[in-house]
# Entry
Amino acid sequence: MTYNQGVGLPLPIYEEQVKSILSPTSGFIAQAGFTHSLNPARNCTYGCTYCYVPTMRVHGGLRQREWERWGQFTTFKSNAPALLAKALRPAQVIYCSPLVDPYQPAEAARRMMPELFAALIRKPPAVITIQTRSPLVIRDLELLKELAGKTRVRVSFSLTTDMDEVRRIYEPHCESLEERLQAVAALRNGGIKTFATLAPILPCNPERLARLALEATENDVLGDPFHERSNKPAGAVTRPQAEAISRKHGYEEWHEPGFQARIAGRMAAVVRESGRKFAIGPEAFSWLAQ
Ligand code: SF4
# Structure
């Protein structure tokens, strides 16, 4: 076990061998067109208060200590690069990762992603999408560029709010919007097809956030609101910690479907004005699989 200092706290980092690394998709990301998911670790040291992953419990492949102590440690799949090298096929459309940020703070020291890119470069799938919120992805820009010369590489970069005081209360261990926008610019300047994914949509100025996303990526914009158990009887939903924060700070309406639809409409209007598309749900995520 080693300790990760990336979030300002000593968090344990474990290693574990697993039996497989590419999982056939189901549900939301299968509807979007992905054939496989790739999760290099279990549990994410960003520990966002709204993260839907711990609400999936065993259905997300988690153990009880992981959903009960979400964000407090992580376990890297130590044999992931070797398993990936054997499992890759040319037709695969891979989403990395639905259950963890592949560039979570612990990745800075662990350096799992360069090993996975080495395998992907040797045997490229049809599409590989990296879902992250971390400027650490820039560390691997040269590997992303090399892979993009062989197959379709997409980076879906999470931007959640334009208000840093909001970011600090819902995702205190994540980087500021400014740092994320700089990372998006570096990806775009490096020729990597990069999308801004406004997910979950935190309290924000919707027009301003949509404009920042457009300026940063010059691409279509994806969105996704909070998901409440009261409106979604099964499947992944927003973690209850975020609901408590919203109640405390007077942001309850950001959890209401009608209000969410109006916010999405305001974002869509800005994005469409610039000739780009805005969508939420599987339709939006299908752009990442193409
Ligand atoms: S970065 Fe993503 S996977 Fe990690 S805690 Fe936050 S929402 Fe969950």
User: Anything to note?
Assistant: The first strand starts at residue 2 and ends at 4. The CA atoms of residues 42 and 75 lie 5 Å apart. The domain at 12-289 is CATH 3.80.30.30 (pyruvate-formate lyase- activating enzyme).
